[in-house]
Amino acid sequence: SIAVKLPKGKPTELFFFYISAYGKPRTIQEIQKTLWPEFSDENAHNNFLVNNTSIKKIFAQNGYDNIVEHKDDYYFIPTHRILCDYFDFMKNINSLFILNQNDLENTAALYTGKFCANQDWEFLEQVQQNCQKKYITLMYTLVELYTSEHETEKKEKALQIILSVDPFQEKAYKMLHDLYLSIGKKNECNYN
Questions:
Q1: pLDDT tens readout for residues 15-48
Q2: pLDDT confidence of 177, banded at 50, 70, 90?
Q3: How many Å apart are CA 131 and CA 113, to the nearest integer?
């Protein structure tokens, strides 16, 4: 795989708008309204064309021809076109129907933190929340498996991970508290 460096600014924001859609086509009007809401239709359209062309050129220089597909007024990046942790995580999390511990652990490992954590793009908030919610649900499933397999250390670590992602998970605090009591770690039961 090849790492592609995008310039800061709107080309990067547009690229991650495509990525956050997880292959779902977006209308040109939706893209323009999301990324250039303060611009006139003509200026927003021109900005879209310039930034979309910039993305396509950068990826073409790195061996990814036609990274952005479009049909009629719909634009998207197909999920099979590039390697992306977010794509892999969403593909795995959306297709998990067998509670195979190894597959669940491998999928959990794909979650590398909040998607585009250092960006404040408006379109990201819902994507980040959805991804985090799916990850926490996955981790609770692992906790249940670890409980049934009596894998105390893995259960403890999974609960700690849940709390590091969302410190307001009371269920995880209670489960961790009960775990510590059951294994004689009473000193660990006090949380700040």
A1: 999 999 999 999 999 999 999 999 999 999 999 9
A2: very high
A3: 9
Instruction: Give the residue among 105, 50, 57, 59 at the shortest CA–CA distance from 78.
Output: 59
Q: Are 19 and 28 in contact (CB under 8 A)?
A: no
**The pTM is what?**
0.82
Alpha-carbon distances, residue 75 vs 62, 64, 159 (angstroms): 20, 16, 40
Residue 118: both structure tokens together: 């250092």
Pair 27, 44: CB distance under 8 Å: no
User: CA–CA separation, 36 vs 42, rounded Å?
Assistant: 11
Using one digit for the tens of pLDDT, what is the confidence trace for 48-89? 999 999 999 999 998 888 899 999 999 999 988 888 888 888
Residues 6+ apart with CB under 8 A from 88: 110
